Amino acid sequence: MSLLHTVQLAPADPILGLTEAFLKDPRMDKVNLGVGVYLDETGKVPLLRCVRAAEERLEKQASPHGYLGIVGLPTYVHATRSLVFGADAPVLERVASVQALGGTGALKVGADLLQQLSPDARVLISTPSWENHRALFARAGFDVQGYRYYSPELKGIDVDGMIEDLQAAEEGTVVVLHACCHNPTGYDLQPADWDRVIAAVTERKLVTFLDMAYQGFGFGIEEDRAVIDRFVDAGLEFFLATSFSKSFSLYGERIGALHVVSPDAETARNVLSQLKICIRTNYSNPAKQGAALVAEVLGDAELRQMWEEELAGMRERIKRLRSQLVEGLRAEGIDDMDFIAEQLGMFSYSGLTRDQMVALRTDHAIYGTDAGRMCVAALNSGNVAQVARAIAAVRSPLLSH
Ligand code: LMR
After folding, report:
1. Which atom of ligand 1 is nearest to the CA of 132?
2. Could you confirm whether 211 is annotated as catalytic?
3. Are the beta carbons of 347 and 379 closer than 8 angstroms?
4. Secondary structure E strands in 53-191
5. 60 in active site
6. Peptide linkage before 46 cis (omega within 30 of 0)
7. Interatomic CA distance for residues 186 and 157, integer angstroms
8. What is the pLDDT of residues 255-305, one digit of tens each?
9. How do strand 122-127 and strand 143-148 relate by DSSP bridges?
10. pTM (whole model) above 0.85
């Protein structure tokens, strides 16, 4: 009997599996709103001008391809720390930071360390959350449960429910929070809500894991990291996963970082030594190109300025696309989806049912997740009316036939 005969066929990934299906779809007018990727007006992943300029500089330097150290490229790690915590922030002396393979890699390295430190802890994620949060923490060995977050009745966040759930959690429970641009809903906590969350986390002695994959897509680079300062100011220890996939349009470079805010510098040094073991035993050390590009841009005043403008351009364009989608839906007679314009980040949580999302895919070649999430950042002026028409059709199937 072959060992491999026991292997079951796994379901496709709820997000990346959609891209696989999309690529196989022969229909010419197909639209992929499944994965969280920003596309430009021509439907392509943009190569940012700042990244291109950094590439040209690196090409000229033509350095050999030696190994990076286990924690990554030092100039990159330094730059990403400043970006997230503020340049020269006093807290930095007690933060352990490592380069990671995108935000997902940062989450996994952090999850592995948490599993080593606290194997019986429960992990709480928002209901709903990014599809991979549950799978990733479960795979790392945790029991994963949800805390209340989005309420369809409120068409927004059930803050009271969320706080109740945090207050009911056992000491040591790991709580995964989205720092900005909540994925999938696009609804973020208000500053006063964050104060309540921080109070609950402090009182119940919970362990916070912040996921910040969309810094700069909410209100701006500084504005979006304000929540990090709140946790620092509250004197909490916490984990923070960040990513440059979206903000630098460097999806394929798998470039992110993990920061662990520790109680003091000595503890941070110990934490870093353990993170290094997690990395070494998984993939030894990270890749160089994405880190070199980000470091080059963030370390140069002119390129950094260019990046901030390009990031602001993406953020503003997504807002316009939201308005265009709302207008398109109104033109189709749908006037109860204006909330799309209020949501933040790349996604819209449409409120469509699983059946409607399947119909969008099957009948209209428009791909979004079964949970009703659509990547607004993948719309353009050439497909927004088509998407609005298709949404109207799946919402009123009788009228459209
Ligand atoms: C998403 O949520 O679509 C992105 O973060 C891509 C991914 O890895 O799922």
Report:
1. 9
2. yes
3. no
4. 95-100, 122-127, 143-148, 150-151, 156-157, 174-178
5. no
6. no
7. 10
8. 999 999 999 999 999 999 999 999 999 999 999 999 999 999 999 999 999
9. parallel
10. yes
